[in-house]
Amino acid sequence: MILIPDVKGKSIGVFGLGVSGIATCEALVASGAKVFTWDENPKAREKAGDTEYRAEHPKKWPWKEMASVVVSPSVPLTHPKPHPIVRKARMEKIPVIGDIEYFARAINALPENERPRVVAVTGSKGKSTTAALIGHILHGVGEEAHVSGNVGEAVLSLPAPEKNFIYVLELSSFQLDLTFNLRANAAVFLNLTPDHIDRHGAIDAYFAAKKRIFANQTKDDIAVIGVDDGYGQAACTALTARDSVRVLPVSAMGTLGRGAYALNGSLYYNRDGKTSKAGDISGSRGLRGAHNHQNAAAALAVCIHLGADTALIVKAANNFTSLPHRMEEVGRLGKAVFINDSKATNAGATAPALSAFDDVFWIAGGKAKEGGIASLKGKLGAVRRAYLIGEAATLFEEQLKDEVKCVHCGDLEAAVLEAYGDALESEAPSPTILLSPACAPYDQFKNFERRGEAFRDAVGDLTSANGAAA
Questions:
Q1: What are the residues facing 361 on neighbouring strands?
Q2: Are strands 274-280 and 266-271 parallel, antiparallel or unpaired?
Q3: Cβ–Cβ contacts within 10 Å for residue 274, how many?
Q4: pLDDT band at 470 (very low <50, low <70, confident <90, very high)
Q5: Contacts from 255-259 at CB under 8 Å and sequence distance 24+?
Q6: What is the mean pLDDT of residues 289-306?
Q7: Is this structure's pTM higher than 0.85?
Q8: What topology does CATH give the domain 100-318?
């Protein structure tokens, strides 16, 4: 557990009793704070039952004594409108923060020579994979690395800081909006695509939240920035001009004169003005596709900065296993490969998966995001047929009609059966049955994890029925 400085005897509110909320309560109590909690979900409130932070409605909190209010990242700060707990805190002039802010304060309270190193990763796509990959590489080279944020344990549940530790944090824009004092020794900004506009109000506000990851960096630190989209290019240019931190661009679309890049499945890096090849990752099953090669280039830049040997970095990247529901191989049956990319909840997230394989039998649909999949037109050359499920089926068929033959399947299990049958009858040497829905799951599933698990189960049932092992 990470103890929090300067909270002893102070009254702190915690709104939201999920995993990170409970971890925050535990850390605050252990640090001597008086903790007041609430969650709008009765089942979540039960978790605080017989504890020192038993849930009590915010109307009963001692607002005049409160030092700060910690809210779940899901709590709206501005759009579509501020949550009542946020409005109340602001009226009382009480800071609204997140658990990452307490982590930052704990690290900042340490003497410089006892401070562990911190890596922070953000982006619209790929941040979980990149954070996990960095952690995997660091473990592989013998470092004491702890991965947290949106992936892994709650940050305040991690082991107390030691000088040799490296904390790797995956941070969403929601978390960054609640963080003010984090200094990352290596900050990674992968990319930006339109998303969460309902929460931020505009793409520029979303972009501004992401760029907070560079706040408080010094010239001893590095800012690793993906430059394969316009937002990354703008961030790279602006930060380079500011000359407050060492900026390392990364790309999977071409060579660079500095930083790191991926080209034809190989990783390259520039050090002291000289470009060298780190190694080949084209055979890595956990890092398929150009977007994952950019993720690997970012991990390479970070791990070189942290002192890792390039050959060991590449070796670790090649044995990296993809995260669940993110281009995850869940089975092989005959010549067919089954890929679970349930995390792809919009067209922008699906595009990289469609470009990562040669012969795709694509399962898509669910609750459509604004614009549907119109942005994928012209990018469907590898798709042999689309198997549509859920509410979006009719819309998607209309948007795909000039490029891809579509089959209405209704549900995921039927789609898997249809896709597998067509894949076996095709002439493709290694057809890929790809679940990459480009939709939210909420019409048929509780979340994208449940959808991915249902796909995995369907593949398992199909495998059992065919008398083979997945």
A1: 385, 433
A2: antiparallel
A3: 7
A4: very low
A5: 256/227, 259/224, 259/297, 259/301
A6: 96
A7: yes
A8: UDP-N-acetylmuramoyl-L-alanine:D-glutamate ligase (3.40.1190)
